[in-house]
Amino acid sequence: MRHLMRLDAFARAAKRGDLPAEPVRRLQIPDAGVRAADDAPDTPVEFVMSTSVIDRVGDTIAVDGWELDNYLKNPVILFAHDSHDLPIGKAVRVWKDEGSLRCLVKFTDKDEYERGYTVGQLVRRGYLNAGSVGFRPKEWEVAEDRDESGGWFPPVDFKTQELLEYSVVPVPANPEALVAAKAAGIDVESIAEWAEQTLEETRGRGFWMSRGDLERIWKASATRSIVSVPKEEPATCGECGALLEPEWKFCPACGTAVGEKPKAADIAQAVSNGISAAIQARLEHQ
Questions:
Q1: Domain residue spans in the chain?
Q2: How far is CA 285 from the centre of its chain?
């Protein structure tokens, strides 16, 4: 499930008349969409999985069009769409209400899976608050009348879609939030381990969030010295506040276009530089 198609890529394919074969992911950044009755680790947390309103890039997903039967047979919750890792929890209830798709998430206990327990603590105490649905579109329409991207990716109205998985994601959480979580006594080393593993596994391949974001999450959550971040001050998305790499012109969190489309050669060079820095740092600190 790690190779979910971005909505902008889906929109371009749909506009050409192609039938995209890969599942799609969509980030939900709620204003107050994560609620827990208390801080007890065994208390389920309510998430707004998806809404029917027009999102930041013009897309809509019909709440009544969600097909849930297959998901409810195995309602696991993942971290960052990582289906190769163990689930961090399960959805004990999924329902449609007030123009949104919602769920109650029960995170794993510490002795069951420490990363799931850590993510649950970060969510309950406000350090993580975003989720992302992975789904398979079945019926949709390209809404070119709402295209605000200059033709890069027209908005899509999804009419019917099958829910495949739901993930808690570390975007748009910033490194300062993880530093604050450590100061509050939350052990976030398992988040650093996830970022380190993901950096290694995605060498030469794409991932749904930028390598720079992964490195910043790694550095903020680890208890040891690790890779350095780019010297240039990162940009911030004006729509959702997520950190952007200086050479990237699309927000990795919400897909908003923030400038000219980056050249493939520049992206490849940036990734190569990041890999070299990571290898060098690991050799220096062994």
A1: 7-169, 175-284
A2: 30
Whole-Å CA distances, 19 to 99, 156, 186, 206: 28, 14, 45, 21
Rounded Cα distance, 174 and 136, in Å: 29
Q: Report the candidate in 194, 219, 220 with the shortest Cα–Cα distance to residue 207.
A: 194
Handedness of CA 57, 59, 63, 66 (dihedral sign): negative
Q: Which stretches of the chain are DSSP H helices?
A: 7-16, 69-72, 114-124, 175-183, 189-201, 211-221, 264-284
Phi, psi of 128 (to 5 degrees): -130, 135
The per-residue DSSP string of 69-116 comes to: HHHHTS-EEEETT-TTSPPSEEEEEEEEETTEEEEEEEEPPTTT-HHH
**Cis before 262 (ω within 30):** no
Contact criterion met (CB below 8 Å) for 81 and 4? yes
Count of H-run helices and E-run strands, the chain: 7, 12
User: DSSP state, 145?
Assistant: G
pLDDT tier at 125, thresholds 50, 70, 90: confident
Check: CB of residue 64 under 8 Å from CB of residue 87: no
Going by the DSSP 8-state scheme, the letter that residue 134 receives in this structure is: E
Q: How far apart are CA 65 and CA 10, in angstroms?
A: 18
Per-residue pLDDT, 183: 84
User: Residue 235 forms beta bridges with which residues?
Assistant: 244
- ∠ CA 248-82-39, rounded to 5°: 100
Q: At 147, is the pLDDT very low, low, confident or very high (cuts 50, 70, 90)?
A: low
Which residues are paired to 2 by β-bridges? none
Distance CA 274, CA 254 (A): 23
List Cβ neighbours of 216 (8 Å cut-off, separation of 6 or more): 174, 175, 229, 234, 243
